[in-house]
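Service request form, structural biology core

Requester: graduate student, group of Dr. S.
Request type: structure prediction, single chain
Budget code: on file
Notes: please return the result as structure tokens.

Sequence provided:
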Amino acid sequence: MLNKLKDILEKFNTKINEIETLEQLEQIKQDFSGKDSPLIPILKSIKSASPEERQEVGKLANDVKIEISTKLNAKFDTFQKNILKEKLASEKIDVSLVGTDIKFGTKHPLNLVIEEISDIFTEIGYEMVDGQEVEQDLFNFQNLNLPIGHPARDMQDTFYINDEIVMRTHCTNMTARMLTELSKQKTNEKNLAAISYGNVYRRDDDDATHSHQFMQIDGFAVGQKVSFANLKWILKYMCQRLFNENVNIRLRPSFFPFTEPSVEVDVSCFKCEGKGCSLCKQSGWIEILGAGMINEQVMELNGLDPKTTTGLAFGIGVERIAMLKFGINNIRSFYENNVKFLDQFKFYGE
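Core staff response, request fulfilled:
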């Protein structure tokens, strides 16, 4: 049995030194340590051997078994390390290669206009609020001098959720809300200046210049000595900042239920400098926004005394400003998510 054990170990060492693949290693493992291993019969016959032989054979059989197991594990570790090394080599990153360009997003042109107007007015002390798009009829209409049944409501074809709740038709709803809150303050001087901005909704047929959803910016300022002269200065200052410092404005009489007097505001054409071109339709002027002094009825409806508190207000269409500033002739371009269109504004303002 001693010779058989030595022979088994010799054959094992010969074969394990010849293997080249993991599959061959698995086969040797099965041949020398599996259930058909030649060691099994020898280990079973030890019990029938003499005590002297049993001790010697048992010791050698155990040594052979340990040596086979140790060399199998060592060979297996070698194969695993080689496999890992090959995998790392195949997945290695060549840091000298030219990197892939990362595309950066751009600010939407409507956001650019909102940010620019925000900068203009926050610099002179106005507060910026976005407000709520689902609004009570009370603040969207009634507290702005548009009671139920008023014919001027037809000017704004409204999305009604129910008899009392609407999708706001203008950002002036926040003017009503903020004036109401101002009236509750326990102070004799009622001073407030704010810009509200965001989406508004009106039942309209979508085309190149109209949309059922668009964006507005409404501004107002109230105090003890707010005058029409303040309104004119603010409007001219805003237009010069938005377009260029040489533009002028003109005010034409108009009608809005929440302002009295009311005006339509035109800006001198910044493209042709008032000489007449396709942008201003040869008139030299471009209609830009509506404005006026806050109606005394609006003051009273929101709890303020028009004898001691006066105010100015104006409303700006964000898309209108953006179309003029960037030379865009189709309002739908703002909402189609065309990457080529949006990329045009990547470096605006830098």
